[in-house]
Write a structure and sequence with these properties.
By secondary structure, the protein is mostly beta strands. The chain is built from 3 helices and 39 strands.
């Protein structure tokens, strides 16, 4: 062997050893440090970790393959031995280090509490496990940043909420047991701020709620209590009383958020019914009480959803059309039944607005909510027959959805959509032959579209449209937001959107600055948009006969549409 080859081969061996060693180190995922309640990626804003609050770290090799749950007072290492999982926060400015309290640890996720001694500002987060330490990830830390816990742990959807009776007893709020006007409600979350003692253990600390408001159904209600949950370290509770004056709309998905000073939490939902009601909330799928009780208990329903969207677009590159149609059969539980993904979401309460974050990977996700699981097999094709009797066939995708869409190109759907549309299929291994119809009206005429372009997020935004002489019982859905390329996956994007719903015959709606302010300012790489469409959701209980022993009974089918216009805007 030539002597001069030794250094080269030695360098190669050392490099391979270094690669093998680093492959065993803990690894925090890109964007993997999240506020435990908000679950918002850092690049989207309002995502800062709060002192004394719970945060989540996602990645690989962060802990044991079987999840370990700690107990209060939580240690700074779990299990408390040299091989356990620990989390360190290092201030970017002066390099001061603080060890977080570890609530739980597993191979892919660590849940921890940021100690009060953590310096607010920019901090590096590292995870150590079995004597190895991850690369650092930069995060933002603030004194207070309250977020609402949601039952699906996604930062949107049904809130973790309870009613409190006169004896002080708590009752979980659910679809079959909605909160009622006049009742006191407790909302759970994290991030109100640090406490002087017992920050990693049990605490009865209370917070001043002078500047705490509860935004429910578009109405501001003062908080009557704020403090730590006595048996849940770093978990906070906000209490308020629902007004009994008819100002709060009823429904299964009334939007709710908490405003602490100038900061607003993530938007969640809460079921709400009139005072003295003995029944469940009024569900948009017209589900009976027993079904809602089953959903609250962890059950599921099987539904078929079909939708059509057509929006005339204005962009810097010219005019065009976004068009999409499709359908899916799927199982939904109480959490996945509310997925506010798309401009045709069925769960925006009339007279109110909501804000949500989503990961978008296809145009289908802009049509209506997509379930957490894979769609059911209803056959290879979904047939669509238009009012002029044209026929189209939608192929089944790997996700289980049947869909087709077009953007800016030759429109998939004609402008004249009025009339009866039919969706049908021959059935498959899990769903028998089926058909559903959708009656389409004329699209909305957005009258002040041309005057809107540069939107000041600090001012209310007025939207107007023609109502005509004919009474129409639809709603108008106004949506807007930004779509930003994901730093983790070039095939997907991160989206922050708002949606407001109001009756069609109102002729106008105002988008509050409080809602617009939840969007980050537009960046060069963003697609910032605003859409106005008339919409309706028609639901019909439907049971298709079983095709095989594997087939599932279909509990309900629903059809929806959004017809209108959209444009590229700038949020500043």
């Amino acid at each position: 062997m030539p002597i001069r080859a030794l250094p080269i081969r030695l360098a190669v061996v050392m490099l391979l050893l270094a690669v093998c060693a680093s492959a065993q180190d803990p690894a925090i995922a890109k964007g993997g440090v999240l506020h435990a309640a908000r679950r918002t990626p850092m690049l989207l804003g309002n995502s800062q970790i709060a002192l004394g609050g719970i945060f989540v770290i996602r990645g690989k090799r962060l802990g044991p393959s079987t999840r370990i749950q700690g107990s209060a007072p939580y240690p700074t290492r779990l299990p408390d031995d040299p091989s356990g999982t620990s989390v360190r926060l290092t201030n970017v400015g002066n390099r001061t280090t603080v060890d977080a309290y570890v609530i739980s640890a597993s191979e892919e996720q660590v849940v921890a509490i940021a100690p009060a001694a953590t310096l607010a500002g920019e901090d590096f987060v590292t995870v150590s496990y079995q004597g190895r330490t991850s690369d650092s990830v930069r995060v933002a830390v603030v004194a207070s940043n309250f977020g609402i816990f949601t039952r699906n742990e996604m930062g949107h959807g049904p809130a973790v909420a309870m009613t409190i009776d006169n004896s002080g007893a708590y009752q979980p709020v659910g679809l079959a047991t909605p909160a009622q006007a006049g009742q006191t409600v407790a909302i759970r979350g994290t991030g109100l701020g640090p406490v002087a003692t017992g920050e990693n253990g049990l605490s009865t600390a209370k917070f001043d709620t002078t500047d705490v408001e509860v935004l429910i159904g578009g109405v501001s209600v003062p908080a009557v209590f704020g403090g730590r949950v006595p048996d849940a370290p770093a978990t906070d509770e906000i209490q308020f009383r629902i007004p009994n004056d008819g100002s709060i709309p009823d429904g299964c998905y009334v939007p709710i958020a908490i405003k602490v000073g100038a900061r607003i939490s993530n938007f969640a939902t809460i079921p709400k019914a009139p005072a003295g009601s003995a029944g469940p909330c009024d569900h948009p799928l017209n589900l009976p009480r027993q079904t809602l009780m089953d959903l609250d208990a962890g059950g599921s329903i099987t539904a078929g959803l079909f939708g059509i969207t057509r929006l005339d677009l204005e962009t810097p590159f010219g005019s065009g059309v976004f068009a999409a149609l499709g359908g899916i059969f799927a199982k939904f539980d109480a959490n996945s039944l509310f997925l506010p993904a798309g401009i045709a979401t069925m769960t925006v309460t009339d007279g109110a607005c909501t804000v949500y974050q989503a990961s978008v990977s296809s145009n289908f996700e802009f049509v209506f909510p997509v379930p957490l699981g894979k769609g059911l097999d209803a056959g290879a094709d979904l047939a669509v027959i238009t009012p002029d009797l044209r026929y189209d066939s939608l192929k089944r995708r790997s996700s289980g959805a049947y869909d087709k869409s077009s953007l800016l190109d030759e429109p998939l759907l004609p402008k004249a959509l009025r009339g009866s549309w039919t969706f049908s299929g021959q059935g498959g291994s899990e769903v028998n032959a089926f058909n559903a119809s959708l009656e389409m009206p004329a699209p909305i005429s957005w009258t002040n579209r041309d005057t809107i372009g540069d939107i000041d997020r600090g001012r209310d935004l007025s939207i107007t449209w023609q109502t005509g002489g004919e009474a129409r019982f639809e709603r108008v859905l106004v949506t807007g937001g930004i779509i930003r390329p994901s730093p983790d996956d070039f095939l997907s994007a991160l989206s922050v959107q708002f949606a407001c719903s109001t009756p069609f015959m109102a002729g106008a709606v105002t988008i509050p600055s409080l809602i617009l302010g939840q969007l980050p300012p537009s960046a060069d790489e963003d697609v910032a948009f605003l859409t106005v469409g008339n919409s309706a959701f028609d639901v019909r209980p439907k049971t298709f006969p079983a095709r095989s022993t594997n087939a599932l009974a279909i509990d309900v089918t629903g059809t929806t549409y959004v017809l209108g216009a959209g444009k590229v805007v700038n949020y500043r």
